[in-house]
Write a structure and sequence with these properties.
The protein is α+β, with helices and mostly antiparallel strands and about 70 residues long. About 15% of the residues lie in helices and about 30% in strands. The protein has a three-stranded antiparallel beta sheet. The chain is globular and about 35 Å long.
Length: about 70
């Protein structure tokens, strides 16, 4: 089981070649990734199917919690 948060828009979007690892990645996305990392969570960013952007954050329930049990 996991929790997912999806945020989408229908704006300009990002280039279809965006892979989330380029220097052009925004610090906000890096900040979100860093916030979720202790719990084994991830953030992905990709272009929407007809423009815009899709941002997905997901964390497994009962995840890592920074190594604490």
């Amino acid at each position: 089981r996991e929790i997912q948060l999806w945020v989408t828009d229908d704006g300009r979007g990002i280039p279809s070649s965006f892979d989330g690892k380029r220097q052009s990645i925004h610090l906000g996305i890096l900040g979100m990734q860093e916030q979720l990392r202790p719990w084994g969570g991830t953030v992905t960013v990709k272009p929407g199917p007809v423009g815009g952007t899709i941002v997905r954050a997901q964390v497994a329930l009962g995840g890592n919690h920074g190594g604490a049990e």
